[in-house]
Structure formats: structure tokens, C-alpha cells
Amino acid sequence: MTAAGVALLFSAALSVAARAQATTGEGTMDLPPLAKECGEANASTMALPNSARALATTKKLKILAIGASSASILGGMREGNPPLLEQLLERTIAGLDVEIINRGVSGELAGDAAKRLKVEVALNQPDVVLWQVGTNDAFAQVPVEEFQETVGEMVRWLKEHNTDVILVGLHYMKNLVKDPHYQAMRASLQHIANTENVPRIGRYEAMEVLARTLRENGRRDPGEFGSSETAYDCMARYVARVIAVGLFAKAPKKPAGH
Amino acid sequence: MPRTPNAVDFWRGYALVSIFINHIPGIYYERFTHRNLSFSDSAELFVFLAGWSLGYLVGGSDAPKSTSRLMLRLGGRAFQIYAAQILISSIAIASLASAAFLLDNPLILEWHNAAAVFLDPALTHIGLVLLTHQLGYFDILPLYVVLMVVAAPLIALLYRFARPLLLPLSLAIYLAALIVPITVPTWPVPGQWFFNPFAWQVLFVLGFTLSRPDGVGDFVQRHIEVIRLIALPITVLGAIVVALSLFPDPTIFPEPKLLFLNGKTFLTPVRLLQFLALVAVVSVTYPYIARIVPWLVTFLSILGRNSLNVFCVASVLSLLGQIVRYLYSGSFGVDTGFVVVGIALLWLTAWVSEWRQQLAGG
């Protein structure tokens, strides 16, 4: 099947996609629809307090995308067409003006991205950072402890600088299921997200669901050539949902003494 | 006959080996390159020495007397670099596709900013030819092409007809790029060039200016001892700040922030000044290196003399290195084997290049 064919089938699937709602202060909000094949792999309801503040005060949201292959989490990017993520968020939240700054560098390791991230935050003052991280470090055999320290430190720095962060996890690949280092990196990122209380898009889990669904329907899984567009579309929708929910979720109260 | 080993070729050879290693993220030997003790890295050295070499091309004893011939010569060199960029990008894309297919891992198609090549091939191929789409780690030659097409003729003309304007004009463009800021967009994937030509041209011009025996070049050569005394504490302080990660929080700086930040894309002043200080300090070591380890000077100089060919092979080898590390789960043994074989291949590339030149020369 050609990529265009996949896209066509995907659009058809969208029309039957389940609609989901999130509760906002002013009622309910329809979340960006997910195609059935994307599955419901991510259910983060964590608050994005800095982004919520930006929404309330300026109705603007500045998103900085960093990390390897950032285009894949924005739903693909082409000059002239706003990224799907931007379209989804502006459609979901009336009056919201979304600006996406893509500073992804393909192949970059977490350590180098972290150094650049500080500079990009200083220059662009984003409300939320989308950081796709881990896959390259796993492929480059970066020690898990080093990776955890680098990413954890950077997440803490972003929080200290009133910038929300959403971690986008490692890719899914059938033949990486039994790779111990790859799986350890996944666990490490999950641990950072839990410890630092920041949303993590379970890209691996999401793509696993997508692969299963596509296989069951006699289609190629997202790990095969030419079908990444479907995966990109799903990822943009996952991210849009996490942001939309995070904008209206209540932030947990800080424990006394913090 | 090839040039005898000299400091410029030696340091250029060093930069090439360093780029080869640094472009294999995570490799064990990455920790021994100078970027671990310096804001700047081998990219700065490469561009600076490219400017220095332009000095020979424009102002050397065998430089064409006629301006039109000089322009033709510069254009020819720019086209050679452009052709090299197109060739290595094509090989890189084919390597990624082959690795993805043979290793049954389509994620490899996303490495090095290559995803757009496979997902949106029509527009991305136009972008590759126009240099507005660059593969990750294959982004320094596009800068070099722009410098040779735009900056080099301007440098040559100003040097011949309005010499005092050259450095001030370059500095003014550099500062404007930082203050406005001015960037060069990428297409079809929106973004910006990793190496901003408006900023990096200043290093190219500085390399050129310092290579000349007149003006600033003459001043620096006459006062190099004093300059080294000033440069030494800057170099040491830079090394301490980098090694201990002591650089201040970038959000505290006032506008225009790019004047104070440490950023590679814009070659910010902190990187530029530290690089110039490093060059002033380290340049003193060449005569000692040549005396103590002459074989190393001979070895790196042959790489430096054939820098374009060696750079191309190094870029492709770095990509293969990443694939090999992924395949064999990168270990000290794999890294060592790859670096040794890789450097040997760089030498072979240089040797074959000179052998062909000698054959052509009869």
C-alpha cells in the first residue's frame, strides 16, 4: 500500500474515532479525536501550570520542540502548512494562538540537546517544551545512569524556570522488545517522569498499540517502510491531548516546606 | 610535489580527525577531543583554517593577478565543495536506507534529519539541492559553500580594493546577526541553519585576515607574545568553566541575549573569543610537536592538505560508525577498532588523492 493509501484509510478511520472530553473550568472540552488504530495508550492528566497561565493571560501558547526527529511529534512539518499539532490545539481550544518553534536536531543525544535547550529557553521563553528523548541515547549506548542524570537535571531546571515539559519517550520497534539496554532506557525515562511529576507521552506503548491494530487489520505496522505517516499523525494527536488536558487540569498543591 | 608539512595543514588534519570522532555520538574517544575543555570545537577550527587557506588563494604568490580570473577560481572551488556536499548527502541517504532495510529498523530512516527525505521526497530533494535541507552532521559544507560563493568573492574584492573595510564590515554583519537576530531558514522542514552563515562568516574573515602579512595579521604576528599572555588566562578559565559546567544560567542575561550566551548556531562572542584565545595559545606548540613527534605532523598534514576529500570520507565514515555502534552495541573494543580503521582510511584517502595529483602532473 502506498503512503497515500495509508493516509486515506487513516482519514476514514478518523471519522469513526471515539470522541473524548475533558472537564474545564467552563464546562467540557472535546479532545482532539484519536483514530481507533492509535489506541488509548496515553492517559496523562497532569497539569501544565505555566502553559495554563499563558492561556489565561495571553491566549497564546509557545511550544518549543527539541530532540531527535521533532517533526514526528508535531505531525510532520512542511513550509506553508501549520504542523498538525498546532491545528489540533487551535481547533480544540477556541481563541488559542499556538506558536511552535522546532529546534529538533536529528541524531542528537540528550546531553547535547540539554545544552542547547537552555539556550533556546533563554532565547524563546517557551511555555512548554516537548522533548523527544532516549532513542538516540539508547542506540549510542549511553549508560542509563548518565542518561537519567542528564534528563532529570534538565527537567528540574525547566521547572525552576517556569517552563512546563512533556517528555516524549522512546520509539517502538518489534526487534527492540528484547533489547535490555533499550528497555532500561525506557524504564529510566518513565522513572524521571514519575519522580519529577511531569507528563510523559508513552510513544513506545502507543506505537505498540498502533502496530497491533494495524496488523489485526491486515495493514503494515508503523515499524515498516512507508507507513510512518500514520504513526506521526497519532503522535501529534497524543501530544495535543496531553497539552489540552494539562491546560485545564488542576495542579497538585505543593507540600508544605517546598 | 605536495607541500611540506606545516602548521596550517597539521591543525586542519587535527580538526578533521576530531570531526570524524565527534560525529559519532557516544563513542569512547569523544571524551578526548578538545571540546571537553573548550567552548569551541573542531567546527570553529575548520572554518577558521578555511579562511586562512583563502588567504593563500587570494593573496598568495600564485594568486591570479586579474580579478576576473580570481573570481573564476573561487567559483570553481565553491562548485567543487557543493558537488562534494551533494555526493556525501546522497551516500548518507543511501547508507541510512540500506542500514534500515538490512537491519530491519526503519527508525534509522529518521536519523540525521533524513525522515523528510523518505516521507516527502519531492520537496526534500529540491531542498537538498538548494542546501535548504541539510542532514544532521552534514551541515558544515553548506556553510562552506555559502562562504565560498558569497563571502569569498566579497573578501577578495574588498582585500584588493578597499582593504580597511573588510574586517569592520564582517564584524558589523556578525553583530547584526546576533542583535536582530538574522537567521537562514531551512525548507521544506521549517527551522534554521545549524551554522548561521551571517555569524560564522566572521570566523572565515578572521582566518583570512590573520593569514595576511599586513594589517591585523601583521599586528598579531608582531605582538603574538603579548597576545598569548592575555589569551592564556582566557583559555584556562574557559577550560575550567566547560569542565566543571560553570557557565552562568543563560536566562539571566539581558537582551540581546545572543551577545552573552554560549551558542554554536550563532557562534556567540564567548565562543569566538575563547576560540581565538585558544588558537593564540596552542599555536605555540606546533614547533615542539614537529620536533618531538615528526611522524604525527607528517600524518596529520597529509590529511590537512587533502581536506575536502578527507572531510567527505570522514563524514560518511562517522555515519557508518553510528550504524556499527548500533549493530554491535558500542563497546571499547568496537570503538577502538572503528577509530583505528577509520583514521587509516582517512590517511588512505589523502594518499590516493596525492597519488592521483602526481599522476596527473606527469
Plain-language structure description:
The complex is a heterodimer of chains A (258) and B (362). With 258 residues, chain A is of the alpha/beta class. Chain A has a single domain (18-247), classed as SGNH hydrolase (Rossmann fold), CATH 3.40.50. Chain A is 48% helix and 13% strand. In chain A, the strands form two sheets. Chain A has a five-stranded parallel beta sheet, sandwiched between helices. In chain A, strands 1-2 form a two-stranded antiparallel sheet. In chain A, helix 4 (84-92) runs parallel beside helix 10 (228-248) and helix 5 runs parallel beside helix 7. The longest helix of chain A is centred in the last third of the chain and has 21 residues, at 228-248. In chain B, helix 1 (7-22) packs across helix 13 (294-305) and helix 3 packs parallel to helix 14 (307-327). Chain B has a two-stranded antiparallel sheet. Chain B has 362 residues and is mainly alpha-helical. The chains are: A alpha/beta (258), B mainly alpha (362). At the A-B interface, helix 5, helix 6 and helix 10 of A face helix 4 and helix 14 of B.
What is the compact description of this entry?
Chain A is an alpha/beta fold.
Topology, pairings included?
The complex is a heterodimer of chains A (258) and B (362).
Chain A: H1 3-15, E1 21-24, E2 27-30, H2 49-58, E3 60-67, H3 71-74, H4 84-92, E4 97-102, H5 110-124, E5 128-132, H6 135-139, H7 144-160, E6 164-168, H8 180-196, E7 200-201, H9 203-216, H10 228-248
Parallel strand pairs in A: 3-4, 3-5, 5-6, 6-7
Antiparallel strand pairs in A: 1-2
Chain B: H1 7-22, H2 42-59, H3 67-102, H4 115-119, H5 121-130, H6 140-161, H7 166-179, E1 185-186, E2 191-192, H8 197-211, H9 215-222, H10 224-243, H11 269-282, H12 286-292, H13 294-305, H14 307-327, H15 332-360
Antiparallel strand pairs in B: 1-2
Helix pairs in contact in B: 1-2, 1-13, 1-14, 2-6, 2-8, 3-6, 3-14, 6-8, 7-8, 10-11, 12-13, 13-15, 14-15
